[in-house]
């Protein structure tokens, strides 16, 4: 069985607003990522994806607070560490995080090599500039990035080059988990491909051991990840392999999400998109029952009153691995959901070209 | 074919001069028809926004003529410009940038009614129209009154933008990347509303995007823009399923797909 790089159990974190309201943006989230695997996270804007990324690193600064749960990286429990210790012993070596829009947040007055010095010095203050430069040059060359970029300022780089540089900087200490939040959404398709290719290379060459990929772009997620997790209003509502999630979702929200995929492929133009009406609940005061209830077309009275838990379903995998079973959060049995979807015409995107 | 509502010949925009000269839009020709949905697709810096701004009359045209409703466009005076804007409106990527932060939501909508010559209508009629427009995009007018744009969520703002268009009923709507950076579900909602709005109002839509899949899904015809030039145009099926320009082929090849494998090899060489 593959080694677990990241294990998260019941992680719950909250924002405390200036009106003293608690916003549980990450609510009892549990999952794991094995060595060499990429986990994708998708979900509606504001469902808590970026907050989850911050929480995973233990990067708690007001208004974000830890509320419960455990995080284990490569066997080491890191929950409850102080932010100072997180910076010294977690960031960069255990987890690297590429925030949404990171590439535009680089200080324009500093050369790229300075950022690398910062990352390394936070962890190892004694390392000489010469050693750092040599390390950076070698890494850049291996990743097919021109090493003269090290002496440049961020404004001199194109968008795609800037993003690849940001990733190279963040992973210089060979972290066990790389979390990338919308790393390529602002880029053209060709630069996007180069960014993704580099992330693959990092993993194949062993510079990173696992990856979490957050994006709204589902076709990209499908191509890049092994497993996909769909979040809704602070909770996970379904997880499974990328293929199962895109072609065989069972939760009504994931079904809606996958039905919204648009790709330039024959046949996909004829099937009309159907939008899910309504908006997600306010996380200040989420509903007691299913959080998707007021938008779900299959809603029943019980959905609104009972706490809906995550349930496992599906077969064990070839190795008899229970972990590879799928999970979903809905009170309706899987086979009933599948029959209903089938009756309604199935998935929008499988009506077209052959798979 | 139905009547031409907007067309252009040799439209060019040059920024700066001498060494600093940038030809952002380079002699493009186009002809858009009533109720048509046209997408303009191109990579960052290809000149899409520059073209949109010229069409809107927000940027001067360096060379070429624009024809609106069959006649050469004349926006030489403020009055003529205002008249032109009754026929052509735009929504942009960042909904927050399209509103005056200091105007309450009701006055944003009220302005639209006034612009369409409804200034003299009784107040009850105006409220009825605003309520209808909000209802059209699933917003509750009563909850918006007395609020400022920044008090709304991104999704509410985007829907408010479409409510404005519903009231303004322009002949042409320019939509510059209105759905980038949002999740697929919310995108479907916005597209749905835009298409309904077109059917309801009977306008033509020019949709600007770098997402070729999106262009394929929504458009009647597609124009592909590279370095300020249209390298290809035609019906969505022709352009996307049988592209002739190398640039179009590359765009289609490089976009991730779900039925065909996403081919790394070609682009990376
Ligand atoms: N500083 C903050 N104070 C209070 N609430 C916040 C703060 N930052 C985020 N939130 C709330 O927490 C929730 C989750 O936000 P988050 O940014 O994690 O969403 P997301 O899934 O990353 O969205 P997107 O796809 O738009 O990036 C949202 O409802 C948001 O309003
Ligand atoms: N005001 C300006 N002054 C000088 N150059 C400009 C100006 N506005 C745009 N340009 C240049 O014109 C070219 C086209 O820019 P434009 O913004 O129209 O591209 P775009 O296709 O909309 O790109 P994006 O997808 O990034 O929005 C670019 O090279 C840009 O740098
Ligand atoms: S629990 Fe009920 S409301 Fe929630 S997703 Fe399932 S059917 Fe829909
Ligand atoms: Mg986010
Ligand atoms: Mg633009």
Notable traits:
heterodimer; A: 355 residues; alpha/beta; Rossmann fold; 11 helices; globular; B: 269 residues; 6-stranded mixed beta sheet; 10 strands; binds magnesium ion
Q: Short description, anyone?
A:
The complex is a heterodimer of chains A (355) and B (269). Chain A is α/β, with parallel strands linked by helices. Chain A has helices spanning 49-56, 83-89, 112-123, 129-142, 159-170, 189-204, 218-224, 242-247, 252-259, 301-305, 334-343, and strands at residues 4-16, 22-34, 38-43, 64-73, 76-77, 95-98, 177-181, 210-214, 227-232, 235-241, 311-313, 326-328.
Please characterize this protein's 3D structure.
The complex is a heterodimer of chains A (355) and B (269). Chain A is an alpha/beta fold and 355 residues long. Chain A has two domains: 4-225, Rossmann fold; 229-265 and 285-343, no CATH class. Chain A has eleven helices and twelve strands. Chain A has helices at 49-56, 83-89, 112-123, 129-142, 159-170, 189-204, 218-224, 242-247, 252-259, 301-305, 334-343; strands spanning 4-16, 22-34, 38-43, 64-73, 76-77, 95-98, 177-181, 210-214, 227-232, 235-241, 311-313, 326-328. In chain A, strand 1 (4-16) and strand 2 form a beta hairpin. The longest helix of chain A has 16 residues, at 189-204. Chain A is globular, with a radius of gyration of 21 Å. Chain B has 269 residues and is of the alpha/beta class. Chain B has a single domain (4-36, 47-204), classed as Rossmann fold (3-Layer(aba) Sandwich), CATH 3.40.50.300. The interface between A and B is large, with 50 and 45 residues. Residues 49-50, 100, 181 of chain A line the site of one magnesium ion.
């Amino acid at each position: 069985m593959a080694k677990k790089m990241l294990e998260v159990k019941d992680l719950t974190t909250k924002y405390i607003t200036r009106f003293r309201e608690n916003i549980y943006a990450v609510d009892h989230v549990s999952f794991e990522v094995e060595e060499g695997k990429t986990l994708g996270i998708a979900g509606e804007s504001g469902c808590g994806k970026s907050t989850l990324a911050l929480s995973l690193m233990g990067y708690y600064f007001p208004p974000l607070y830890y509320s419960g749960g455990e995080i284990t990286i490569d066997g080491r429990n890191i929950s409850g560490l102080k932010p100072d210790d997180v910076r010294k012993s977690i960031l960069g070596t255990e987890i690297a995080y590429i925030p949404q829009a990171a590439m535009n947040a680089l200080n324009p007055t500093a050369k790229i090599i300075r950022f690398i010095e910062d990352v390394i010095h936070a962890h190892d203050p004694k390392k000489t500039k010469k050693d750092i430069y040599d390390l950076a040059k070698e890494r850049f060359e291996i990743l097919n990035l021109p090493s003269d970029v090290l002496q440049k300022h961020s404004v001199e780089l194109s968008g795609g080059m800037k993003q690849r540089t940001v990733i190279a900087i963040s992973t210089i200490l060979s972290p066990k988990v790389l979390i990338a939040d919308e790393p390529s959404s602002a880029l053209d398709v060709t630069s996007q491909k180069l960014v993704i290719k580099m992330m693959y290379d990092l993993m194949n060459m062993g510079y990173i051991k696992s990856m979490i990929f957050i994006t709204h772009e589902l076709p990209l997620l499908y191509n890049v990840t092994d497993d996909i997790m769909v979040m809704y209003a602070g909770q996970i509502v379904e997880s499974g392999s990328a293929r199962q999630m895109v072609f065989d979702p069972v939760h009504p929200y994931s079904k809606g999400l996958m039905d919204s995929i648009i790709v330039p492929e024959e046949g996909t133009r004829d099937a009309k998109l159907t939008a899910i009406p309504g908006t997600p609940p306010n996380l200040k005061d989420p509903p007691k029952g299913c959080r998707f209830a007021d938008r779900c077309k299959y809603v029943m009275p019980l959905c609104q009153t009972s706490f809906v838990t995550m349930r496992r379903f599906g077969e064990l995998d070839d190795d008899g691995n229970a972990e590879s079973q799928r999970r979903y959060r809905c009170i309706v049995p899987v086979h009933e959901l599948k029959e209903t979807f089938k009756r309604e015409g199935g998935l929008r995107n499988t009506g077209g070209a052959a798979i | 074919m139905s009547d031409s509502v907007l067309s252009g010949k040799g439209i060019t925009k040059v920024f700066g001069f001498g060494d600093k000269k940038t030809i952002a839009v380079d002699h493009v020709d186009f002809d858009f028809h009533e109720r048509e949905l046209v997408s303009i697709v191109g990579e960052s810096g290809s000149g899409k926004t520059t073209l949109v701004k010229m069409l809107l009359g927000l940027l001067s045209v360096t060379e070429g003529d624009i024809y609106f409703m069959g006649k050469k466009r004349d926006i030489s005076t403020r009055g003529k410009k205002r008249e032109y804007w009754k026929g052509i409106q735009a929504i942009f990527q960042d909904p927050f940038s399209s509103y005056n932060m200091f105007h309450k939501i009701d006055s944003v909508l009220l302005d639209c009614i006034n612009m369409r010559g409804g200034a003299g209508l009784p107040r009850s009629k105006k409220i009825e129209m605003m309520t209808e427009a909000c209802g059209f995009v699933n917003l509750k007018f009563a909850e918006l009154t007395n609020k400022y744009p920044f008090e709304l969520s991104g999704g509410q703002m985007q829907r408010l933008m479409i409510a404005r268009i519903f009231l303004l009923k322009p002949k042409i709507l320019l939509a510059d990347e209105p759905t980038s950076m949002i999740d697929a579900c919310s995108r479907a909602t916005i597209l749905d509303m835009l298409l309904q709005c077109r059917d309801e109002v009977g306008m033509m839509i020019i949709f600007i995007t770098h997402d070729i899949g999106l262009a394929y899904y929504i458009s009647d015809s597609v124009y592909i823009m590279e370095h300020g030039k249209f390298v290809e145009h035609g019906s969505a099926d022709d352009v996307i399923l049988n592209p002739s320009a190398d640039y179009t082929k590359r765009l289609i090849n490089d976009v991730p797909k779900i039925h065909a494998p996403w081919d790394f090899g070609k682009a990376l060489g």
